[in-house]
Structures are given as structure tokens and as C-alpha cells.
Amino acid sequence: GSYTGYGRVREPPKSSGLRALWSEPATNVTLLESPETRAYVHTHMSLFEMGNLFVTYGRHLQDNHASIVYNESLRINDTRAFFYMHTQAAYYLVDNYTTVMRAMMGHCKEVTDQLYDMVVGLLIIEVLIACGGVCALLTWLLLRLHKHRVALYTTFVRVPTVAVKALARRKIEADGGDSESSGENDEDVAETEDDG
């Protein structure tokens, strides 16, 4: 049997138009209806149906190769399988698969762009969170530093204040500044007495 469904294969996404290219019967195909009368039928097929028919006819030719080739009354050109594979599938499948491949490349580029935008957004959010954390840490450290600096400053301010207050309470003697001159006068008086 041939492959007739998606099975476990994921279906193409709708957004990129791949499913329409793959599933909608958009290609006008000519099929050989009767090899004896050479009657043809025109039908619209989807790319999936064309590929499936290509695989089915290919297996038919492979399985019945001996009976077709060695049958003198039957030419291979007169079989439906060869007519379809030779005149229809070779052209339409290549063109349609190329179109699907281009659509898949466009879809992959869209997904890549979305992923890139998402990664850049996450990086920006991460940088903002990191900067906010660093700013919060620096603010906390500065507040602690300010607190310790204020405590240290008040410690240094209190010690001189006590010393200055103690010095301010001492009495200043009035003749403390003339003590040297009075000592010199006493020596002069003593010398004059010795001379006398």
C-alpha cells in the first residue's frame, strides 16, 4: 500500500500557506483513462495526491515490470502509470515541490525572526533585571556606608567636644603671660643689691 495520510508526520502550518499548497486541489492534471481508446480525463489534484499517485504508479511499474516489458502486445507508453509519471508528474511535481520549498523557507525565516525577536526581548529583560539588581545592591551598600560614616563622624566629633569643654572650664590666670618678664626683673634687683 502507498502512503495515504499524514500519520505521525506533522501537518504543514496554516499561517505560511503551506497547507493550502499541499492539500488544495489546484493543479490541473491530465490522466490516461483508457489505454485502448487513448481517452484522457482532466482533473484537479493537490500536491499531496499527485505525490501519492506518483509513488503508487512507481511501485506498480516496479512490481509489474516483467509483465509489462516482455508483453509484446503492450507498450509501456500506453500504461496509465508511465503516462502520468512521464508527462504530468515530472513537470508539475517539480514545480509544485519547488514552490512548497520556497514557502517552507519563507516560513522558516518567519519562525527564525520571531525566535530572534523573542531572544532579544528576553535578553533586554534580563539586562534590565540585572541592572536593577546591581542598582539595588549599590543603594543598599551606600546606605550602610552612610550609616557607618555617620556613626564614625559622631564618634570623632564627640571626643574633641569633651576635650574642648574641659579646656574651656579651666581658669586662665591673669599674670600667666608676664611670668618671664617678672623673673627677669627679680634677677635685675638681685644684681643691683649685690653691687651695692
UniProtKB/TrEMBL annotation:
Tell me the organism.
Chlamydomonas leiostraca
Concerning PANTHER family, the annotation shows: GAMETE ENRICHED GENE 10 PROTEIN-RELATED, TINY MACROCYSTS PROTEIN B-RELATED
- Renumbered residue ranges of the record's region Disordered: 172-196
Bilayer-crossing regions: 118-143
Q: Residue ranges under compositional bias (Acidic residues)?
A: 175-196
Q: What keywords were assigned to this record?
A: Membrane, Transmembrane, Transmembrane helix
The protein depicted here goes by the name: Uncharacterized protein
